Amino acid sequence: MLSRIIMTTYFNNTQVFTLAIAGLFFLISLFFHVNNKSKLSVLFLFLSGISIFSFGALLDPFLNLWDERFHALVAKNLMRHPLMPTLYDNPIVNMDYDRWDRSIIWLHKQPLFLWQIALSFKLFGISEFTLRLPSIILSSALLLASYRVGKLLVNRRVGYLSGVLIISSMYFIELISGRQELEHNDISFLVYVSLSIWSFIEYYFSKKKYWLYLIGIFSGFAILCKWVVGLLIYFGWSILKIQQKKFKISENWDFILALFITIIVSLPWQILTFIKFPEEASNAMAFNSLHFIEVIEGHGGTIWYHFDKFNVIYGTIASFFIIPGFYFMKKNSKNIPLYFSVLSMVIIVYLFFSLADTKMPSFTISVFMLIMIALASVIDATITYLTAFLSYKIIAKLAAAIIIIAIIVIRIDIESLQEKHTLWKDSNKYSRMMISNKSIFKSLNLPKNTVLFNVKGRHYVEAMFYTNSTAYNFIPSEQQYNDLKLKGARIAIFKSASGSIPQYIIKDTTVIIIDKKLDGYN
């Protein structure tokens, strides 16, 4: 594994270093794991996770399409006013700000993951890495939760292997990098859902009351990232209650208490937005409600869409192992009713989003941890079967270690990451385009009161992030131009974008004409 990392000369030195450190920590973790040193094995797996997730965050030195740039800009604006999420923080041009991609008050997403990014910007400065830092932290927390859940549901090795599968997930690494759609929003959502499931399972076995508070808090946090699917834990808990035949209110005080805390955590923001921004909040809720009954923005697909995406998210041929995975998970489960509770959450998520008309790859990712644990159960059963024929413990340990290393090497496709995230091949037009645009935006050095026009496509979002100037993708009308002059604004306009510049702008010697060509999408 280390030789593969060291040979990746197309990554920069920092990226190679983080990969090498990740590999080293992983090998140390594996050594402790096969020698039954659980705490040390988990500690070094955690450190390996931090390193490889940091590598993911370093992959792209620019804001990614389609959503990361919007999230970055809104989070940057939240630094100034945490309770007022804005896309256009200074909507100086008279026009209709009537869509999610050109709105003033931006309620297109719930705010928690944006607050996290804003806090990271505030503490560590504004950059692409600090934008992705909360995802690194949360993903590392997911490793610990996954280990505990796997251990409690099945055994120690299943918990460990689920963590191995997470750190070697190409899809997960690309979410952290911002390249996959909904990136940091989905990372935060799936982690908070997973933490609510972890707290529930800890409560089931310990009956300690503080786990109820954590169930409620983490479920509330999940809602504050991606709305009502954050209540998933309560569906699984209800299935467990039904199996236990607990139907009286007096038998369900724990469920009610946790749900009450979830409501306390998540409801105030919903009330606040409807009080302060009633029109925007109503429009956002109506738009989100349409996802189940309409294909939004072309994101459609058949009822099998999410099953077709299974291998993309969980790895090549994962679909062939998921049913055996849940079989072995049940066979070796420490508690069958709890197993069915977990299984029910996976089923309802896939059923719900398969029936919904709008479809995107990460919609089912709330059960990412549970599916990784199921897949880990197959690997655990395979290792148990193969090592049963080996007489010497040292050989059995070595065989188990080789299998786990092979899983990492097979799953992490270094060449694919190089091809997609570096300038190794000429075919990577996307990275070249985004690097060039960022360089242009950062080189402009515009006066403080400048309004930027004629920015290509939706790249006005990155323009606002990098230049701190309000930006638009059109040429101002004469009326808009006159209004801006009355407001004392300077005007800058890209000459190279589509459309000729009208005379009333050309004649104004104070207008900044930018003779640089932006790449990108119209």
Topology:
Elements lengths: L1 H5 L6 H22 L3 H20 L10 H11 L33 H13 L3 H26 L2 H12 L2 H8 L5 H24 L3 H17 L5 H12 L9 H24 L1 H12 L15 H4 L1 H5 L7 H10 L4 H20 L12 H20 L5 H19 L2 H8 L7 H15 L6 E4 L6 H8 L2 E2 L6 H9 L3 E5 L8 H4 L5 E3 L8
Parallel strand pairs: 1-2, 1-3, 3-4
Helix pairs in contact: 2-3, 2-19, 3-6, 3-7, 3-8, 4-5, 4-22, 5-6, 6-7, 6-9, 6-18, 7-18, 7-19, 8-9, 9-10, 10-12, 11-17, 12-13, 16-18
**Class by alpha and beta content:** mainly alpha
Biggest sheet record = 4 strands, parallel
Give the mean pLDDT.
Answer: 94
Strand order of the largest sheet: 2-1-3-4
Name the poorly predicted regions.
Answer: 1-9
Rg estimate, integer Å = 25 Å
List its salient traits.
522 residues; 2 domains; four-stranded parallel beta sheet; 24 helices; 4 strands; 3% strand
What do you see in this structure?
It is a single chain. The chain has two domains: 2-58 and 126-420, no CATH class; 444-514. The protein is built from 24 helices and four strands. The protein has helices at residues 2-6, 13-34, 38-57, 68-78, 112-124, 128-153, 156-167, 170-177, 183-206, 210-226, 232-243, 253-276, 278-289, 305-308, 310-314, 322-331, 336-355, 368-387, 393-411, 414-421, 429-443, 460-467, 478-486, 503-506; strands spanning 450-453, 470-471, 490-494, 512-514. The chain has a four-stranded parallel sheet with strand order 2-1-3-4. α9 packs antiparallel against α10 (210-226). The radius of gyration is 25 Å and the shape is globular. The two termini are 42 Å apart. 46% of the residues are buried.
